[in-house]
Amino acid sequence: MATLTVWKFDNPTGAGEALGKLESLQKQQLIEIQDAAVVEWQPGEKEPKTRQAVSLTGAGALGGAFWGMLFGLLFFMPFFGLAVGAVLGGFAARFRDYGIDDDFIKSVRDQVTEGTSALFLLTVTGSAAVDKLQDELKGKMGSLIKSNLTNVQEAKLREAFGQENTAWRIGPRTLPPPAGASDEMRASIAETPQPDPAAMQIEPQSEAEWLAVIAQLDEGKLDMAREISKQFSVSVEHATIEGVNVYHVTPSEIDPKLEDKLFVHTHGGAFVLNGGEVCTLEAIVIAHLVKVRVLSIDYRMPPLHPAPTARTDVLSVYQHLLKTRPAGSVAMGGSSGGANLTMGLVQHLIELGIDVPGALFLGTPGADMSKTGDSYYINDSIDRNLVTYGGFVEACIRLYANGRDLKDPLVSPFYGDLHGFPPTLLITGTRDLLLSATARTHIKLRQSGVVADILVYDGTAHADYIGVIGSPESHHAFAELNAFLLRHLQ
Amino acid sequence: MATLTVWKFDNPTGAGEALGKLESLQKQQLIEIQDAAVVEWQPGEKEPKTRQAVSLTGAGALGGAFWGMLFGLLFFMPFFGLAVGAVLGGFAARFRDYGIDDDFIKSVRDQVTEGTSALFLLTVTGSAAVDKLQDELKGKMGSLIKSNLTNVQEAKLREAFGQENTAWRIGPRTLPPPAGASDEMRASIAETPQPDPAAMQIEPQSEAEWLAVIAQLDEGKLDMAREISKQFSVSVEHATIEGVNVYHVTPSEIDPKLEDKLFVHTHGGAFVLNGGEVCTLEAIVIAHLVKVRVLSIDYRMPPLHPAPTARTDVLSVYQHLLKTRPAGSVAMGGSSGGANLTMGLVQHLIELGIDVPGALFLGTPGADMSKTGDSYYINDSIDRNLVTYGGFVEACIRLYANGRDLKDPLVSPFYGDLHGFPPTLLITGTRDLLLSATARTHIKLRQSGVVADILVYDGTAHADYIGVIGSPESHHAFAELNAFLLRHLQ
Asked: Do B170 and A455 make contact, defined as CB atoms within 8 angstroms?
């Protein structure tokens, strides 16, 4: 716990003198101050001068950004004028998170005025520093304004301003191919050149550039999809439903118990890739290994169609399907951006009062696109498929979001309500950039009373279960999906 | 795919000359050789001279360790004598994994003899190198011995010998406190100094040193356990069962549906820590949050009692309990080394034909103690509780193993059979050094037909669910355990 104390002096120099005493006490290790700053307001000046006690900056110091923001809020706000009002709203709200509330702000503004000075101290709650200083300054000091920060408030404060103190710098390390993965998966990883974040710094600047990059990244995938469909004897047939392009993907062998069931597939690709018949790539694998009919939706995507067009397309197809079959006979899902869309659709269905599918498959879901979650940091440059959040991945997300906040549930359905979701199977791996997104979604689903299972495959990156098709991981994952659908579809 | 080709020459210099040609062709980029080595056996010598073609060592080279091991197997084995026979058994078995089988070894040993020489080449299967060299050496060359390596065999080979090629060097990164964790968990992590692997380099060298280190590391824990039991109004009572020390840990509130059930607790602590009443630390939390009676076993530990004494103690207590209650009314488990012991006990029970418990709790289980699994590398120095495998953790494991192979199921129950296990709940986190061990155990349990659920908490390290008692993660984990017991105990 930390305490933020403000000592007010009735003249412009008192605070500076007190700081001098403090520094000498600190040097003698008689007191422990975490951080300090001084405000001096000379008579006749329009605003005070502020300075951080650099000599005290050591363990626990928050740094200039914190004091700058706090003093901006306390003393310089009127000068910002109306134009920044909206910014200041969030600004003040943020400080409330740190335990610096309206009362505190008002006290300071009322008392620290022209011709006075003030000393701001951040100390460990209950430490001797404040008592000692009170003794030293007997008689010289004016009133005292105090704000006790809870552990959580202090942590939030440090998180925002003291990153040099709370973030850990993880040194270089050697990562061998995962000995805990299957031979096939490990061989595939051992053959992969080390992921290179520099190669992911592609940020198209215009619609034309986007279309060119997308065409380049999707090159060869259609041949691959057709090759796989041939290899697995899976038939693929184009159709349109309510004006939306779809593909009927039918395996040569259908599980007798899934004969009258349908898997509605929303493909991945960061909301921009895998359009057209390429969308069937994952659908073919699902159809073959889960032994179920799949309907893959070629929803419209950016740059021509930002959010929420994709979701609207998926909704149209789903609603059409419900005319001829019960919702409980439909499973739905996909990987990455596709899992995001499936989650978003289910939230939309619940809002609209439409029956939800009987089961969901969320493969390494892009449930939180805001770079919140441990694995965005830990698995940066370790995930061989996504590689890193910054660069192309983030560019795709922002293109899709089209100006929306990345924590808007339409962009990141994790932040929406998950109550009422159908039984959900989630899949991730220890090298997945979206390991945290998947794990957090799983926990939140269970907290929302949803039947939810997660599978974590050792050594696997984002959607490796679909990337290394013949691997035991891939076979096991889709055998689990088959069992899950048998258990939950009606 | 790679091919290992051996060119045999009928004189001791032919191979060296051929290597010269090869190097010049490689320099002209006319051929691509991944690695090469030469064996020259002068007449009258007892053994050949071997050397690696250092000039070729580039992309794809396996390095001296591979050639040294291979040549040891091929030419120097007889000189090792009988004493190392057991070692050579595993040695040869390992090469079989790389596609270097008995026939290959026999051919080489029969043909490459005194007065001859041989050139060993590793090339990409189907590359022009072998054909080109055959043209160049027309007439000079003796017979050719070949071994085609599959992708998996090549990957295994590279994993063992070519770490510089297949392991990734992950650069430094900054890891902020986990934004996806609860405020309480994040505050706790933000307050934790960065984990320091150097501080973990404690390797006691004698029984006395071990006992001193254990006493030091366990200091204060008993007070903490008693403080928590007071805070939660949990009663703790010592007893002995079949000569084994145990503690009856009874919460103030018992779930009515768990009134006649019992949770048998095997405490963690890397098989050496948390002995005596300290073993109740986790048991008190479980009793309070799961609302169930707990019996915590203070099994005997190293350095005085290495494996399998701990398991024998646990077995004695369990068998005694079965005299008065059905196995289905007993849940069992613990964290880390405790989860390892519970897994080992269940394997032992199945071997002995004794009824297994009705449900298991495996918190971040030390299921694989052999440093196999991704998270031993990825989360090295990121897990704030275990920190790193090397040093103290490994020393504890080896002390407990007492000379056994670390993949012996008695040390690492992951390598034993998991069929017939009761329903099992597993818990881990994204910073857990044992994330992979937990995830792999979960998948293997499911593959063995066992009902098994896993929970992965974002940002949490080894056993943080027990370390940050008031956190939502801790509450959720034990609420899940409560629900799991209600579902599966009989």
From this structure: no
